Model the fold of this input.
Amino acid sequence: MKILVINAGSSSIKYQLLDMDTQKPLASGVVERIGEDMGTISHKAFPGTPEENKFSAEKPFPTHKEGMHEVVALLTDSEKGVIKDRSEISGIGHRIVHGGEYFFAPAVVDNDLIEKLRKTIPLAPLHNPGHIIGIEVALELFPGVKQVCVFDTAFHQTMEPKAYMYGVPYELYEETGLRRYGAHGTSHKYITDQAAKYFGKPKEECNFVTVHLGNGASLSAVKNGKCYDTSMGLTPLGGIIMGTRCGDIDPAIVGYIADQKGWDLQKIIDTLTHESGLKGICGSNDLRDIHKRREEGDERAQLAFDMATHRCRQFIGAYFFELGKVDAIIFTAGIGENDPLYRAAVLEGLENFGIKVDAEKNENWNRQPSAISTDDSAVKVLVIATNEELEIANETVAILNK
Ligand code: AMP
Done:
């Protein structure tokens, strides 16, 4: 069975075609700059294998429809293609950033779903309009193929009000939906399921702190396999310090910047979103670059690293108290999977809390879900590579099979 996973943005379409028998991608790529004078497509057949076949081209894609047509043309191309025709695609899984309070599980696309997605646009104005276009184009191009939406917020819908409400007038929640929704839920769920498998027990018996550290980053407290708390807020700007995002700050800072600098609201939000975090402190949001500069004695790079790891550690500490008992801390995503220095700094000196990182295992993690803690560490520390596309494809298959 083959599943096409689509993540449509306002001017882009990321895609991956997966073979569900092998659980591996057959092709993946991205169409960018849709709607501009000139667009691009980058496509890989059999990514990550010796047969990998890369292709990229520049051409205009006036709308998402032309972009999706190009994707289908490449997937079915007689030379570069990986399938004979589109009828080989059994289902389509759409990645949706925000499902508001409507969705706590993946759902089949129908008019009601699209209507609810439209209602959540104010909560994700940069993402959900693009997702809706992606769904509409896919419905047109693949008539009769079942389409499923998988929501990044769904995993966090099990939080209790005490965790998701903000201390602001209750009417704001009732009237505008203002609350914590979280993000990266597909990744937090995937590594929760993988970690439960690693322990060989049902996830309902597992408590984890899941640490998704990519350019965007969030942590979740997972109690009995369900999200109990998470670091991101109403939007993906909250929580820990990220590549270019500020994370949690004193809300009065917004008014202070406006007063001091005369900036309008949009400029302030843009700065907090794109020019802050690691980049705002030291000019770079890539840990590889930051480590190189730290080695050369760059104090700003050191400060950025110290601030980010300090904040991450704070959340882990908070979630330990919330959960009471923790089976494992699990790292994932670009930094979580590839940066032993970050992991070591976050968990340094916690032996009294039963957390002992094995320096050698941490340094030599081999990309398989495995522990980087010592054998006698009461709390295990795992690193598990996330795979959001596979999670979306698996969720889509589960719904197709119902
Ligand atoms: P993601 O958003 O999950 O793709 O993560 C991207 C981030 O991962 C980059 O901005 C880097 O900071 C970090 N990263 C990727 N590879 C490495 C590496 N080998 N060592 C340290 N950090 C890395």
In short: Residues 214-215, 243, 285-288, 333-335, 338-339 surround adenosine monophosphate (CB under 6 Å). The longest helix spans residues 299-323.
